[in-house]
Amino acid sequence: MCLTLPAKVLSVSGVSAKLEVSGREKEVKMLTPEDLQIGDWVLFTNDFLLKKISASEAEEIFALLKAYPLAEPSQNQELKNILAKAKSDKLQQADIEYLLTLKSEADLNELYSEANITRKTSIKDHICVHGLIEFSNYCASNCQYCGIRCGNQAVKRYRMTSEEIIEAVREAVEDKGYKILVLQSGEDYTYSDADLISLVTEIKKRFRAFLYLSIGGRSLEVYQQLKKAGANGVLIRYEEMNDRLYTDLHQGEDGADRRALIDGCLKLGYTIATGFIAGLPKQSVTDLAVDILTLKRFNAFMPSFGPLVPSKNTPLVDEIILPEEMMLKIIATIRLVLPKARIPVTTAMETLYGEQFRHKAFMAGANAIMLNLTPEKYRADYEIYENKFYDQEKKMEKWALFKGDLSYEMLEEELKVKI
User: Which listed residue, 70, 212, 227, 315, has the most CB atoms within 10 A of its CB?
Assistant: First the structure.
């Protein structure tokens, strides 16, 4: 589900309450009985009051969603022209390359501010929370950047049983209120196609949740059967559109095959989460611009992208870390290209740049996070890179997750799919 802005209670009458929202009054219905007083802070969405929160929590949420201050507006006319083109969906590759090369503080703040305005205009102040369950770290691929690649003999491998996976889903959905989950693994073919189809069938039979699968390069026929079993979305990164770079990173694999699989899943009716890795060796600004435009080609509902995190026991351990500023420019540019997309702040971003990066990313147009729900005894071993960030507090759970039929109705209306 999604976090929305808090509001202050003006009055309470039976099962209704009048709220102050951005200086205006709004009447809402209460989902559950609340002991409310005038002046209390609450979370609401559409026409319904969800839950009471403290004044300090309200302050934290407002701080999380504040915009970049434009103390000194940019005088860069070329930038203004490009931002105007973005409003009419006319950005070209050269425009994106220009945005990615901005340097002055005034220009950057204008870019981030425009991205934030685009987010607010297109999807309001919704910060969406997804749950991630990493059910196996076995992988048949040997991607040069990845800590769980098959060539890394130092990894402590694990594979969750179907019962363990189903229990993790139960805890997420029934105990916490998650409605969007990602089941993720390496390319682990010990789980047969029939095993995965059976697992998805059982999960969808027992729980009401939107289910993404991030399981790698199975055949399109298998993905079709998984769709019939109830899978809603796929998370498959194309990783890099430059085929030469892709071949360097993936021994014996073809980027065209990967893209064909994503295209096929799109035609099957899956909701698509896809994207790229930024900061790869020999990757140019032109490469990044093409990667960003490709998100649009695949109609990415959730762009899945992040910086390369140099990891031990991989050939790329000594690579230079992508500057934080470039990551923010990429986020802001993607928001301009895909105004209504769910742009997540990924774990890789927070691993490299720290937890405070989440706030900066939201101010630059991001609007989603993915919280790790992998059982504790396995979590540390899904080490695609070292020192992997883990959100211990998970404050966003209590601010964004709630139960009840209305929460499903709202999600189904947004996703245009029955879950």
Answer: 212
